[in-house]
Specification:
The protein is mainly β. It has one domain: Immunoglobulin-like (Sandwich), CATH 2.60.40. It contains one helix and nine strands; from the N terminus they run αβββββββββ. The strands form two sheets. Strands 1, 4, 6, 8 and 9 form a five-stranded mixed beta sheet that branches. The protein is globular and about 35 Å long. The C terminus is likely disordered.
Length: 127
């Protein structure tokens, strides 16, 4: 009977951990969310670029909100209302060939297609 109780408690603990939402994407101070900025980071050959930090910088306050691109190169950042400049993390030799302009967020906005295209400085692939 005691063994069954331990098993039930273990399963309950695992189930509660599995339902935990995990870390919230979109760092920075806790402020009311105005809207969401979303886009894709890809190469000139249209290949997704995963694991890159994308930062939305509030142009009035300098406050920064970060996200990391997923396997498909996509990112989303929840931000308060305001105007934002978007930046993407580059590796040595890479340049940005397409970058979104200033992004204005109003309450409940979804600003999709804030895409970046990056290219390596040297032709021929891996460094």
């Amino acid at each position: 009977m005691m063994r069954l109780l331990h098993i039930a408690l273990g399963v309950g603990l695992l189930a509660s951990l599995a339902c935990h939402p995990g870390p919230k994407i979109g760092g920075g101070p806790k402020q009311p969310v105005g809207g969401t900025i979303a886009g894709i980071v890809s190469t000139q050959g249209n290949a997704p670029v995963a694991g890159r930090k994308v930062t939305a910088v509030n142009t009035a306050t300098g406050t920064r909100y970060d996200a990391t691109t997923g396997p498909n190169g996509g990112y989303t950042i929840q931000v308060p209302e305001g105007s934002y400049r978007l930046e993407v993390q580059l590796q040595p030799g890479e340049t940005v060939t397409k970058q979104p302009g200033e992004t204005k967020i109003n309450k409940s906005d979804l600003d999709p297609h804030r895409d970046f295209v990056i290219t390596a400085g040297r032709a021929g692939g891996d460094h």
